[in-house]
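It is worth pausing here to work through a concrete case rather than discussing structure prediction in the abstract. The textbook approach is simple: state the sequence, then state the predicted structure, then interpret. We follow exactly that order.
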Amino acid sequence: MARLADYFVLVAFGPHPRGSGEGQGQILQRFPEKDWEDNPFPQGIELFCQPSGWQLCPERNPPTFFVAVLTDINSERHYCACLTFWEPVESTQEVVCAEDAAEKEEADEGGQVRLSSTAPAQPGQLFAPKTLVLVSRLDHTEVFRNSLGLIYAIHVEGLNVCLENVIGNLLTCTVPLAGGSQLDSVEEGARTISLGAGDRQVIQTPLVDSLPVSRCSVALLFRQLGITNVLSLFCAALTEHKVLFLSRSYQRLADACRGLLALLFPLRYSFTYVPILPAQLLEVLSTPTPFIIGVNAAFQAETQELLDVIVADLDGGTVTVPECVHIPPLPEPLQSQTHNVLSMVLDPELELADLAFPPPTTSASSLKMQDKELRAVFLRLFAQLLQGYRWCLHIVRIHPEPVIRFHKAAFLGQRGLVEDDFLMKVLEGMAFAGFVSERGVPYRSTDLFDELVAHEVARMRADENHPHRVLRHVQELAEQLYKNENPYPAVAMHKVQRPGEASHLRRTHRPFPRLDEGTIQWIVDQAAAKMQGAPPAVKAERRTTVPSGPPMTAILERCSGPHINSARRLEVVRNCISYVFEGKMLEAKKLLPAVLRALKGRAARRCLAHELHLHVQQNRAVLDHQQFDFVVRMMNCCLQDCTSLDEHGIAAALLPLVTAFCRKLSPGVTQFAYSCVQEHVVWSTPQFWEAMFYGDVQTHIRALYLEPSDDRVSASQEVGEAQSQDDERSALDVASEQRRLWPMLSREKQQELVQKEESTVFSQAIHYANRMSYLLLPLDSSKSRLLRERAGLGDLESASNSLVTNSMAGSVAESYDTESGFEDAETCDVAGAVVRFINRFVDKVCTESGVTSDHLKGLHVMVPDIVQMHIETLEAVHRESKRLPPIQKPKLLRPRLLPGEECVLDGLRVYLLPDGREEGVGGSGGGPALLPAEGAVFLTTYRVIFTGMPTDPLVGEQVVVRSFPVAALTKEKRISVQTPVDQLLQDGLQLRSCTFQLLKMAFDEEVGSDSAELFRKQLHKLRYPPDIRNTFAFTLGSAHTPGRPPRVAKDKGPSFRTLSRNLVKNAKKTIGRQYVTRKKYNPPGWEHRGQPPPEDQEDEISVSEELEPSTLTPSSALKPSDRMTMSSLVERACCRDYQRLGLGTLSSSLSRAKSEPFRISPVNRMYAICRSYPGLLIVPQSIQDNALQRVSRCYRQNRFPVVCWRSGRSKAVLLRSGGLHGKGVVGLFKAQNAPSPGQAQADSSSLEQEKYLQAVVSSMPRFADSSGRNTLSSFSSAHMGGHGKWSSVRASGRSTGLGADVGSRLAGRDLLSTPHTNGAPSDSGFLRPQRAALYIIGDKAQLKGVRPDPLQQWELVPIEVFEARQVKASFKKLLKACVPGCPATEPGPASFLRSLEDSEWLIQIHKLLQISVLVVELLDSGSSVLVSLEDGWDITTQVVSLVQLLSDPFYRTLEGFRLLVEKEWLSFGHRFSHRGAHTPAGQSSGFTPVFLQFLDCVHQVHLQFPMEFEFSQFYLKFLGYHHASRRFRTFLLDSDYERIELGLLYEEKGERRAQVACRSVWEYVDRLSKRTPMFYNYTYAPEDTEVLRPYSNVSNLKVWDFYTEETLAEGPPYDWELAQGPPEPPEEERPDGGAPQSRRRVVWPCYDSRPRVQPDAISRLLEELQRLETELGRPERWKDAWDRVKAAQRLESRQDGRGTPSSLLVSTVPHHRRSLGVYLQEGPVGSTLSLSLDSDQSSGSTTSSSRQAARRSTSTLYSQFQTAESENRSYEGTLYKKGAFMKPWKARWFVLDKTKHQLRYYDHRVDTECKGVIDLAEVEAVAPGTPTIGAPKTVDEKAFFDVKTTRRVYNFCAQDVPSAQQWVDRIQSCLSDA
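Step two, the predicted structure:
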């Protein structure tokens, strides 16, 4: 029996001691006054009586009741039932304030002054609270409510009952203990009590003590919060989060907390639990530990700043989870199943809602019953979650008390829930630790949960898909829970007096009387005396063996993907092992790859362990070397997939084996398998060792108690094998039996058993100390790699598997923790670290399993000796193992090297691992896995090369090659990976290159860490050479080392080397002079490139105002050396292109020079104005050179606007410049340097800029009238062609995506929306009447400095562009998307497309194309455009180049594209070295592929217009690869200035070298083109002067296959010498004379290059032709053959009359829309479609006649006459002609044709193929010329003459003066005849 109530307390309002506004509770009386011995009086009750604080009220409130819960230091809960009522404050005197009133009341002995019934309530009347409190350890809320209610009723109603008697009876009332069902009579199970006031109450005690009593609290909780919210609170409480309930009702708070606790059963909540928290204690909420607390909603504001508390608002029905808190959900399918069952219980009508004929409504369960049903759902949930838990209990000790541990890893592994966050956290939590120690005990009383988890799991699984059966089960469980709480429903009849309605409002109240202590104490003492005579109440327990239930099967068995082990796979494992032990090594070798694949599956790993066990006799198995290697490889493969937890017990099963298998190395030296399987994370995990130890201890303890007959069985069983057979008793059964017998044993016998158990544990501890030293000490103890891999090894306390750590274990372990075991493995000694790790382990397990302290000390002494002994043994083993003959490894394959390429590091043996690209492992393309491959990595002066063979023997003898240029390396990181064969953890390297290659390598174990480190250092040195002259492009075939003086060419004039030095000297002189006058920013030399200049110091080179006369003299007065400079500058690409475009000339002799709108200015020939510009620039004729100096200051990097292209049709010009300086910066810059006022200077500069722009506008013929003012009047709608609106940019077909991001202007919304600095009026009209003459395209931020033109001759187009750093970031992501580096988590294209989209690469391409198409539109309509973005060398270059490519067909030829790149990218100073991070300085800035992005844009246009480009896609990839490879010098350095400084620019001409390796990429392309047509596009059939307008939407863009494709057969195909050339001749032609064989060949995707293996028709024919001609002994170049075919085709087309080609090669693609044409299969050998080869415009039916008429020239008119060639030769002979494109003078055969009005020329007299035509209609003048460099030496000067055409000037030289005169006369007469 137990006391119903321990204490009765009366608490009243009292003043606050510090005189604050609030009062405080004061205990007036408490009974009994002495504390009970077994239960002291709880402190702080007065706080809990009024949790919101003690306050006076202006009116009388009705009485309230709630139950608060207090927890004492022993975790015992005390229930405080509080009934509060209000009494008036004494009012006989003036009530000054609440405190005074309270004091008076206090002084007046409890306030016994009675108010007369007639006294009216005074207006200021206040009421004070008074509380009756009942303190009990039992939870009988209703009984407490009735009892306190009765006392209150007696007081209020004035009943004639003595209050002292009632309270005395209440305090002496006893109730039966829980478990009343074991008592015989109803009366004892349900006790009826009376307090002596004519009342009767029935107290029902629950049948089973362990089941919680919930009444209706769970059902109410669900009503208030809903299913989802309650489920999250449930998960939060289980995973130890903080939960806070808010409500205005205290009773509801108490019920909600009670309900949540009831749901957690069978786990007990062991953290802070306060259902009602008083206001004074709110700071408890900031405690770091988990809690469940209830707080009055009035204090909600105080809870707002709690960041990690989950707040459940009961009144509002919400649960708020903070962002930083993650509540793991229940594992599926339990989550959804639980949710469904809960909704069936709470809303039974949901199932019937959709029925057409719903059944009559069934009566819903009562609230109490629904409460039990909800609890039943959660009880089932726990049974499913924890099913089979008893099979994972390890019983470590049985006597004197059971010690039980839970094997968490095995439980999770068998349930397939290792990854599940929720279960993991629950098992690690305190509640589960309590569950194990309480319920793990094998012999105890059982309850509903034990039955459920043992016997009902099978039923629950069967019911899963039958909701009605589930509901029935829930109702059955609910019945049992209900019966437990209400065992005797029939007797529940209460009779208790209640106060009348509104009795609290009556005036006649007297205050609650002071009770007589004596009377109550006497009643209590009487009862106590009576109890002493009675026998003590003993809880009648029926203890039994707890049922374990069926062995563990997985309810949530996750299938292990492709490795579900079939019986066939297990058979393969068994066969392989039997072959190994039978010595059939070849058979075993064949099976090994299949076995290693099968071992990915769990069953195969278990099977392997089992099979190996069978081959061990007496704990030892000696093998020969080959067997040993096989066994070790299989073990390693098994262990590689073991997590640190070893949840499937594989490492546990192998542990006895690694100490059993061994081999003899030499007499007395044996090597065990453990020395070869150490590198797995599982061995360094304390939890693994603990679980293993406890498992083994359990086996031995069980053996202690088994009958001798059972003993033999157990001895034969291996330690670590699965436990008992079905007929044997489990360790728990044995323990249960022993616990039952324990009380009957004699004391001596008990002592003996305890001692036996203790020594068993001790001996196992010694055994494990040995085992751990075997697996933790590396074979070579000098190597600390193993330890480095497992840094932080022994963090035992933080990650222990055991759940209750004894305080002693903690303290002992801490002493070792001061040196953290393996943290700093480099410095600490291996032995010390291992000793510390083992000592921690020993401390922990021995303390937990009760080993005596003497034994523990002995162990600590033993461990260092064990480790030392083992190290000595290992030294001998290590020494002998070194002497073993090495295993035959495959021979290293040497890579093919380029001429001049040298090996820096010879092959290091490595494994190349798969990197996430599917093809290499046989992915999408099918085929076997080429990776992983075993081979070697070589480092040469040019490349990093891997060559090797696939490790998979099924692949055959394929060679895998992967390489990339050292210069392309973008990222190198160390990795730690498992080698594919031995599964050892090895150091590795991952190298990523910007050519989209990735080498993910694991070093072979024979490669020492120093060799790997040397490789890294050498690689780094080659990647970032200290000097650009150390790069491969310079060292390759160089005639001299940088140290020696260069050879001087034997030339009469100064050589070009001298010239370039001269040039630089002059430049430096000019620059040096200005540096003396002003200390200005010094531009970085090329060795210090990389970091951009600081913001405030732009790269300004301002020449001093008073320039030397020599600097700017006209070209006629140049000094000889300067003239040499000039002529060499004229040779440059820029100049050739300017001449082609007719953009001006240098020669002063021509009379027309002044009438030209533009001129070539040599102002920058010394690179004094702008270092990054070319030497010669095109500027308006009217601008003087000295003005350019001032204009250049307004622009970033001094890059002022210069013309780079002119439209042949509209004569509009394209200009480029850097972005504008902010105006303030310019002003500041002038103010520092000039004596005059800064502002005026800035204005003058701004005016110069304006003049300059005006000059550009005036130079356009269409916009300039006679006065030079721009009237724009002539710009009529006829010229506009109906496109006079901005919106046309949008409307035109191809430039649709021009959205707001290209500036508001491009969307055609608003014309002059840019802010104007000088307040020029903004144009209010929506559209302009006509276009501006000049559009300035600039960055939004930069355009503020330009003042809009008042006449609106120029207009600003602000656009938003991306910066170089965004290109860099985007490229990084693109690299990751195309070459991920690790296999994708979700295979398939979705993840690739997602990461491609994230990279935003295609969006940048889209923007570039969009802006370019806009500029093309503007130029085409006759307006000029100035592109002025960033510094003028990145995006500006991209846009300007694209515009020219789209507008001018010349740039779409091989020659033209080369010219475009040389002019816009090289001469105009794109910073190739800086963007390519070529030097150490550039290392920090990283690789920024601006040029590659341009090539990608060209590729997109090429795809849309396949017939418009003379070059193939392969040409673009080739340039993309080599612009980063540093194989050629072309793309080195940042500007022409730097190239001159290094003597790179003119050396090709100066030194006539022998045939050394090409230094220029263009030279290489030319040389290669003569041998193979791979750069040539066979579908090239351009429309004359077609302007291309590609679609630019992202949906129209394709991912360039340069990024994604790779050929593992030979590596990148861009170094042509290394590719294996054309396919071998067919088998039958082989010289060995064997029988003819099939020509077929297997082509593997990703291994072979398909275009090469399977050439297209044209390449095939050309190769065939070449082969046949080689056989005939007169080889001909493919180009000659091609040209002959073209000539024949042209002749045929002419004879055909209509001009349609009639040859085989007929054009089938309509000309009007080429971009929809053909997508070509493209590769290094050209493309598959054969279309018209003729690049002339065929005058046939395809083009519209209007266009034809407009473009018809004399040549097309004359071509209608079909006369023979010979008749049209009016005059012919040999002339020397100066080549235009950097070519020397050559003798040609010239033919003057009067009929066709042409001057044609041929290679030689008999040549039928015309090499070129000069249309005489275009000739403007024929004048005497002057000899230039390279002209024939012996000829008289007067034999030279020039022919000036509208396009360019031709230089000729006849053999002598008379013939020259004759030629001039003949040409003149032709011109006059015309």
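Step three, interpretation. The radius of gyration is 48 Å. The mean pLDDT is 76.
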